[in-house]
Write a structure and sequence with these properties.
single chain; 373 residues; mainly alpha; MetI-like fold; two-stranded antiparallel ribbon; 68% helix; globular
Length: 373
């Protein structure tokens, strides 16, 4: 008993410095940022850089203005840019990394060389990647002149300066879109719970999905983001940035997938082949299901990187090009250029909430799995 108490005391003493520093420099500063986001710090230029600024609580006014203020249209487009960037970045990195991993898993000659080539971009910083790809995507050179090497006309795509926008939608319909997506997820969870025999949970999820669907069908009463239409969409100037990001991170997903593929027992593949399965069927029914945990982990990490993306876009287009801007860049402009600290803190808290929605469910699921073991 005395030994157990001594070990516990030793563990507490060893962990205390880290816990104290974590409490101060992580959660303490998060709390400070939340406090600032609920004030009017920066509205009055005379008080912005004062030693003891006089702050007034405005509560959630800063957040409401970001999503529905007439002058905050850039923040809303930044959110849309971040959504499309995250979607294509994750899909491209996972897809290309999986292709590389499958190719290297087939015992190709020079595997070590190709593995190094594919993984090398991951060793670079986003600043270096952004600088190199900015040179390559210049409208008057780079990729646009590659067709001339084989006698074709020069390309004219405005990689980082395009103003063209596709997949446009009205920002006022965002509550409807969000509700439909959540309802679809709830339906999927309902089906999964029903198959697992958890009837009570399935009924609860189905009821929630039905309520959301009914709310959308009645026109989503109670929420009016803007009194006028505001078109948002996917800016084609983001295409070059997405390509650069995929180029850098696909090697990382390749390494994850390759390690997982090497861990698939060869006996399982041989059994599937003996049963008459083609090579495509072996991958579809044997290999790919075993890659599920690795895919989820890679999606969480890539999503975390994407939501905080700053340096790559800063290096490629700078912070002032609205067509390629994301919330992290706008936070930098508001807080460190315009001295509007409350607005910058509000944007930071929105980003923190978005990151938390990605990370927390994954951590909860992982911890539950460890407890079950």
């Amino acid at each position: 008993m005395r030994r157990l108490t001594r070990d516990r005391l030793t563990a507490i003493l060893m962990l205390s410095p880290s816990l104290i520093l974590l409490a101060i420099f992580v959660y303490g500063f998060i709390g400070q940022t939340l406090y600032v986001s609920l004030t009017n710090w920066g509205r009055d230029p005379a008080q912005a850089l004062a030693l003891q600024p006089r702050l007034e609580f405005v509560w959630f006014e800063n957040y409401a203005r970001l999503f529905s203020g007439v002058l905050e249209s850039r923040f809303r487009q930044d959110l849309v840019n971040l959504f499309f960037f995250t979607t294509f970045f994750i899909a491209g990195s996972l897809g290309l990394g999986l292709v590389f991993a499958i190719a290297l898993d087939r015992d190709v000659k020079g595997e070590g060389f190709f593995r190094t080539v594919f993984l090398f971009p991951f060793a670079l910083s986003f600043i270096v990647t952004g600088t190199v790809w900015r040179w390559m995507l210049q409208p008057q050179g780079g990729l646009n002149v590659l067709p001339t090497l084989v006698g074709l006309p020069r390309g004219d795509f405005a990689w980082l300066t395009s103003r063209e926008r596709i997949w446009t939608f009205d920002w006022r319909s965002l509550p409807d879109i969000t509700a439909v997506v959540i309802a679809a997820v709830l339906v999927l969870l309902t089906v999964m719970a029903w198959r697992e025999g958890r009837r009570g949970r399935a009924a609860t999820l189905a009821a929630a999905a039905a309520l959301l669907s009914a709310w959308v069908a009645t026109g989503a009463p109670g929420i009016e983001l803007l009194p006028f239409p505001e078109g948002r969409g996917f800016n084609l100037a983001l295409v070059g940035i997405i390509i650069a990001a995929i180029w850098q991170m696909s090697g990382y997903t390749m390494a994850l997938y390759l390690a997982s593929l090497r861990g698939v027992p060869e006996e399982l593949r041989e059994s599937a082949r003996i049963d008459g399965g083609s090579e495509l069927q072996v991958y579809r029914y044997v290999v790919f299901p075993l890659l599920g945990p690795i895919t989820l982990s890679a999606m969480i990490i890539l999503g975390h990187v994407s939501l905080k993306i700053f340096d790559l876009i800063f290096a490629m287009t700078g912070p002032d090009l609205a067509t390629t801007s994301v919330p992290a860049l706008l936070m930098y402009i508001r807080a460190f250029r315009a001295n509007q600290f409350a607005d910058g803190a509000a944007i930071a808290m929105v980003l923190l909430l978005m990151v938390a929605t990605v990370i927390i469910p994954y951590l909860v699921t992982s911890l539950r799995g460890e407890v079950r073991r």
